[in-house]
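Listing 4. Sequential folding, example run.
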Amino acid sequence: MAAPMEESQGKYYVQLSKKPVKFDSVSRFNNVFFDETNKQVFCVQIKNNQMHVIAKGPDEKKKNEFHMDSKGDVLSIKFSKDYNVLGVQRSPKSVEFINFHEGCDVLEYSQSCKGKTTRILGFCWVDQSEIIFITDHGLEYYQVIPDKRTLKSIKTHAANVNWFVWLPAYSMLLLSSGPLGNTIYPFLFKQSSMIKIPKFEVELLHIPKPMKLCLPERDVIMANIYHQLYVLIIRHNVNRDESGTSSAEIVLYLLHKDMAAKKTDVLKLDIGGRFAVNIIDNIVAVHHQVKKVSYLFDIKLRGRIENGVNYHLPFITPRPLNPFKINIPATSVSVNISGQPQEVEVNYELYSSNWIIFQPNIVIDARLGYMWFVHLKLEPLVTMFPNKRLLIDFLLLRKECKFVVLNVCKDMLSPGHQADLTTIAKVFDKLNHVYASYLQSEMMAQATDSPQKAPNQMRTRNTIIDQSDMYTHVFTCFVDNKDINYKFKIAVLVEYIRSLSQNHIPVQHYLYELVINTLVHNKAFYQLHQFLQYHVLSDSKPLACLLLSLESCYPPAYQLALDMLKRLSTANEEIIEVLLSKQQLLTALRFVRSIGAVDNVSARKFLDAARSMGDTMIFYTVFKFFEQRNIRLRNDPSFPKGEHCEKFVKHFESVFGPETINISTKSTS
């Protein structure tokens, strides 16, 4: 069992995963290897001329345990991406292969490198059935054919190679060449093709004489940061002061397909020494072994620009990883009740010299037998950003931070933590700028018949906070808080509506309803009238219906609603219904005539409303109005049977007498 210390959770913003992968620690009898492609640790033990292998990673279903014939020491061991073929390198000249389609195959087959003096530096699986040999003389690209137990050469490339760096998620390979090691050849492997990308030179601070290798593999990292591939170079002894103390920096080169990599960013460290680098949620985390702290850099946060290069300092005060406890076997020979060796819980030594770092966020301690993933904790970071706008910029770039952002917004509006309205407006603008970009990409995707790709890409790059999120998680509880002055509530809501409109985002009616209900609750009717008159609150049918419901407490709301419906020009049916419900039949008839809808309205609806009023003159006027319509349309005053007006004709007869009704109408009844 291993876990972070709970009492220290709020003090640290970087931590090791709570459930590490536990494996047999390295020893005289147990060799440990790591497969970067499948994120698996291999434990290799040799007993009685048999090699016992355990391969395990974070996915327990992918765990594999098997035996093989021992044919010498293992230099490297890796499964193909589909786990159907195992590659084992035992010598610098060849790699052996074993099929695993239905268990471990007893027959092995091998492939030697080309050239008598050539040595294999390592191998990498590109695809389920493709593999690269990296040799000191270049690259050898093969297709593995498991059924025939053989390999077929796809392509080769000649180059003097010092070392290589492999990024499996993107099938990108870097080769170091030249006497200084600073000439870098990038290669991209895609669809059985080896694509050579223009080489580039890494700047060196000093060139020794005679020349020797100055850029070692341990100082080079390849990483995906914000969906772009970078090469990170750790440079030591950059600034040496009078006392002889030096500091380090990390230089970022952005890889391009059609041109040489360009130096874009420099991460400045205030100390020298031994460093290790992880990429955590697009954050560059630099671990310093001696100081036992981690420096965090975000290249999206603007730094100092000089000659087109962005120079960054850590955006937060460096702190250690969250303290961690692990269980280790007791030193004395003792067993528990079940007969198993007893374990004791101890504090784990963070930043250990036994650490081996793999990208993007893996830490392995082979001596103790643990593999962790390094994670960023956003909640502690919130209190460390004095600038709310910078905090929102930072959070919107993180994964799974929606509720952290919403809590920041909620806190920003709460008594005791309230930000000024200018800051609140800037935060809203940042949220809605990202929201608008997402909506625009969604519209473009629909226009180009690819409705999923672009919006999904946008969501992976930024956290989207939409109106429903703000309404549900921020504004409803904000408005319900009785300790907040209603004027501040209105100012905040209007500021959010202003930000939405400025970013060309249609405002949802429930936000307007929140403003109206807050104003009505506080009897701020004059302000409500002003908002409607000057269109601070945009016209909509739901809003008009809300105003109609407020007539009892604010009588002018009725006319405001009616005016709003008229302005909409698509709410004629609703206006007629409102007028009929208010028993303003003659006004309704005048409105029907004004919009040219006399021929289409239902006579039965008007006659029914007129009869229910109990005013005989109103009924007479309405009846004659539709009688005249019938004459104009059909030269006949009678009502068609389909309108079901027979009962209204009889009512008219009974009230006004048969002599007052048109002969044709009477005959049809």
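-- end of first protein; second protein begins --
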Amino acid sequence: MRVFVPLLLFSAASAFVTKKSLIAPTSTTTSSARLATEIQESVRFRTGSNDASLSILLVCGAAFLLLSKQYKRILWPGSAPDPTSDAPLPPGSFGCPLFGSNLLAGSEDYGPNVFFDRRRKRLGNPTLFKFYAFGAPAVSVSGGDAIKVALKDEFQPDGINTMMVSDNFSQLFGKESILYESDKDKHGMLRRLVGAAMSPAAITTAIPSIQAAANNQIDRILASDDTVIMEDVCNDFTLDVAWKTILGLDLKDDEVEEFREKVKGWISGMFNPLFLLPFSVPGIKRTKAFKGHEYLVSKVEEKLSKLDKDGPDGSTLSAMYFATDEDDTDDTSRKLTRQQVIDNSLILIFAGSETSATTLTCASLILGLHPGVWDKVKREQELIQSEYGDDLTKASLDECTYLDSVLKEMLRIKPIEGMELRKTEKTLVIDGQQVPRGWFVFNNVKETHINDPVTRKDDESHMDVRKGFDPDRWQNNATKPSAWLPFGEGGRRCLGERLAMTEMKIFLATMARKVDYDLVNVGPGDKVKWKKISAMARPLDGVEIKPKKAVPVAA
């Protein structure tokens, strides 16, 4: 039978092409028999075989061809358009049957999630395009206006909502974090209580601790007699902020390294396909990601027990744990549960370490490529330091207007690649195209920045780390980008935005006051290479630098 399979497929295809009249609107049985007879004659002619056993296969093949209009429903379940909507589906294709496209793949020329960039270019850069991933149909939505339409009915029972990707994934990031709460009232309560730990007053209190962590890492750079990998420095800095400021832990030196390794292992689960599968996976609890999660939960539990005994201590975790809902301060049920505190603490660790560390690593690269910009950052710090002294405060950070523009420009060019995920509870119509009920919606931040009409250039050089990086564009309303969504949009905009920006400002301000440096692996004519798998684009070499003590900028 092996001999006949390729010939059977070829013959079926031949008959389908040359005998289109056979697939006329007649009964399925009659048409199948006709088509089977025609194909059988074709096979007999090519093979000399009269094997009757082929008849069953041929009839099945003919029936499949007759039902070919339904093949998308079979190969990509749930991908059919909503028949009650007159709007067409967005352009695009569904990729591998049942599984769809590999969204995690990257390239050294582009970085992670290269699928989205390749697909949009192939389709002519549309606002919406469809694809299939993780066993479900989805649409990429870009552009500020289109994203606002998509999110207009967020939290409505028949609108659009977030959801946990899989039960496996929930074992890493928790089911009770603010990210995955779809009930409007419960989400509002979580946002108020978690937000209490992210208030301006709370961030101001955290500034000395964050500056101490920054000084520790910058002094480590200057103490090196060799080159330094900035990715390692930035990772360690943000993780130090995580255990000191966010969790309020008291770790000894050997425990600090264990904490860093466990967090690294935990975050690796985000890029492990096993955690995205919709069914239980044997052995998943033996992975580094799961063990990292268990370690972090144990540390949070220990800290909560200490807070129960000793009371508030000024950490972010403490602020969440003791926060009461401003709408009903006398009702103790309006406090976060222990599990909600744990799950939201983990989300803050991820957001405050992985994304901030990546942005700072990229900043080290891009500022090394633009020494004139680095001089402007240094000069601003020299002026601020002369007025406010060495200690950073909210007042002095508010004066870092050029540094603020540098960070915003960084996040414009290199925002998070993995986008925000939602699921439709009803069919949406966006830009005249339908997104059927039950489909995933990916709010495409990167493409939104690419197509911003204020900054866009046809060759897309405005997104290039050499040609497009221009912090001065943020100093003028006429050139300021009209679309900037690195922290999301709508009711789920990142609560940690203020902490992240403060953390990154403090690190770069401290570095500008103490360090000058040269890039080791990326010269003027060298192409920048990127890591293939990460939440945000990270330089392939980790940004290796040769540091030296900072020289004041001439006034």
